[in-house]
Specification:
Elements (H helix, E strand, L loop, with lengths): L1 H9 L5 E2 L4 E2 L3 H38 L16 H12 L4 H8 L3 H8 L3
Antiparallel strand pairs: 1-2
Helix pairs in contact: 3-4, 4-5
């Protein structure tokens, strides 16, 4: 971010923050910007460290048996194996995907995605 601001300043373009109320054309404004940019970078690195520590702790718990192996991360699936089997059976019986999705109370795009294996 500092590089972008310096490039703009070198081209004679004034950068003024309307929300923080400082002008990067002044030495005070550049100082404030540098402090805020450093604080943001510090917070970003701190968050990355915490995330890495959390992942390592989860792997340790998995290795000690405190957590089920292969625990999936991310959003849980809307359609489980039983619902997918029902969806496939309905579609194989000639029911439209839209009607089958309505029967299972899931979205049509969710039903299509489940059928193609996404």
């Amino acid at each position: 971010m500092l590089t972008t601001v310096n490039e703009l300043r070198d081209r004679g373009i004034a950068v003024v923050s309307l929300t923080e109320n400082f002008d990067l054309g002044t030495k005070e404004g550049r100082f404030m910007f540098a402090v805020l940019a450093a604080a943001a970078e510090y917070e970003l690195e701190l968050r990355a460290e915490r995330q890495a520590e959390g992942i390592a702790a989860a792997k340790r718990r998995e290795a000690t048996g405190a957590m089920l192996p292969g625990k999936k991360t991310g959003r849980p699936r809307v359609i489980g194996p039983a619902e997918l089997a029902t969806l496939r059976r309905l579609v194989d019986d000639g029911v439209s995907v839209t009607e089958a999705a309505r029967t299972l109370k899931v979205g049509r795009s969710t039903a299509y995605a489940a059928l193609v294996g996404r």
